[in-house]
Design a protein that fits this description.
With about 400 residues, this protein is an all-alpha fold. Helices cover about 45% and strands about 0% of the residues. The N and C termini lie far apart (about 40 Å).
Length: about 400
């Protein structure tokens, strides 16, 4: 993965500090002398860096699997909203209200909207969050990681998913006559040269676009107006040649073609962490599966989902709630049973990381339309941190998390 650095992302990293190491294998255990973690939280690592993100993914994944999350868990998430409607990536003390020094971001806010909109009954929270997202839209129609930051593919796409989840039409949410789809078209490589059809995270310092598989998975979903828990789309013609992207649908098709090529050799994407380039990137592979399935590239999506079934169990067990959620989304998108995914009951494992659910209902079918566009891109929390650090989302979620019994 090529690193695209922006002032906004660097500013976020400066505030967040050691967020990436906190989520990696060396993450510190919660201090026994500090305040106890919220009982309603999924995962057992300190929530001050990623609580909103992982809680949102956990709630959304449970919903797609027919599990009604406990009210306390939902209340914890809604309670993290700041007065202006946004949600924050970092809270020195998540139990206290946001203040003027709280750094908020689009990714946490959009993830929370997707989860709460899917669950229903939280219109006041989601409407306020959507209003904030609209207020920080950039002139090119896109969004950056933080308000005012340069637009990037990942942030723009996760916001598109939030808008769709909340009943908005992303193409009609504009700034200076530009929509999010206009921003995404400007971040996609053309059909000639290396990386044809892929999305870049952002232009580099020279203004050039460099292919990025992580951003491409996001861009495909964003172009489709779909989200993290998107179901399968209409099967597309395989091996469609890259064509000039004059529409969001064509942009999605071009991005999917790039992902199919990237996944064709081994069935998975590889880590971008320096020194670990030959290691699988489970999280980004799961995101790519969802993107391909939503675009209709069902054959490659199924092949890579099968690879995840055989190889991702240990990664998910070490990584915790967000990783289980990503795999549940991939299973749903490809018509697999998340309760028997490579011999693992992903839903049970996810549920075991948090409070006991209220009840279990019938698992929604993958082709039910009510969730297809209600859950934003997938996995784009801390994208700024990941890309500045040169690591993928999948690696960021590789921290060891001990499963808490329900």
């Amino acid at each position: 993965m090529n690193v695209r650095r922006s002032a906004a992302v660097l500013a976020a990293v400066a505030v967040i500090g050691a967020a990436a190491p906190a989520a990696a294998d060396s993450s510190p255990s919660p201090s026994t002398s500090g305040p106890a973690l919220p009982a309603a939280l999924y995962g057992d690592s300190d929530p001050q860096y990623d609580g909103v993100w992982r809680q949102s993914l956990a709630l959304l994944a449970q919903h797609t699997a027919g599990v009604e999350p406990p009210k306390a868990a939902v209340d914890w998430l809604t309670g993290q909203q700041c007065a202006d409607g946004s949600f924050a990536p970092y809270r020195a003390d998540p139990s206290k209200a946001c203040d003027d020094g709280t750094t908020v971001d689009t990714n946490q806010t959009a993830a929370a909207v997707q989860a709460l909109a899917a669950l229903g009954g939280h219109d006041a929270v989601t409407e306020k969050a959507v209003a904030w997202l609209k207020s920080v839209q950039n002139k090119d129609g896109g969004w950056g990681y933080t308000a005012g930051g340069a637009s990037d593919t990942n942030s723009t796409s996760v916001v598109i998913g939030a808008l769709a989840a909340a009943g908005e039409k992303p193409a009609e949410v504009t700034k200076n006559g530009k929509s999010a789809h206009d921003a995404l078209l400007g971040l996609e490589l053309d059909c000639e040269g290396d990386g044809a059809g892929a999305f870049a995270f952002q232009p580099d310092k020279k203004g050039e676009l460099i292919a990025n598989a992580d951003a491409t998975a996001a861009g495909v979903l964003g172009s489709l107006g779909a989200g993290m828990a998107a179901g399968p789309g209409k099967t597309a013609t395989a091996d469609t040649a890259c064509e000039k992207a004059d529409s969001p649908e064509q942009a999605a098709a071009n991005g999917a073609a790039y992902l199919r090529t990237a996944l064709a050799k081994d069935g998975h994407l590889v880590s971008a962490l320096p020194g670990a380039e030959d290691q699988p990137d489970y999280g980004n592979t799961a995101d790519a599966v969802v993107a391909l399935a939503a675009q209709g590239s069902t054959e490659q999506a199924g092949t890579s989902a099968a690879w995840l079934e055989k190889n991702a169990a240990d990664w998910a067990a070490q990584s915790g709630p967000a990783a289980y959620a990503q795999l549940i989304f991939a299973a749903r998108a490809t018509g697999s049973d998340p309760r028997a995914f490579g011999g693992t009951d992903l839903v049970e494992q996810l549920t075991a990381t948090g409070p006991a659910p209220e009840k279990t209902a019938k698992t929604p079918q993958a082709d039910e339309k009510k969730d297809d566009s209600g859950s934003g891109f997938g996995v784009w929390w801390f994208v700024g941190v990941c890309l500045v650090a040169g690591i993928g989302i999948g690696f960021l979620f590789s921290g060891r998390a001990k499963k808490r019994q329900p």
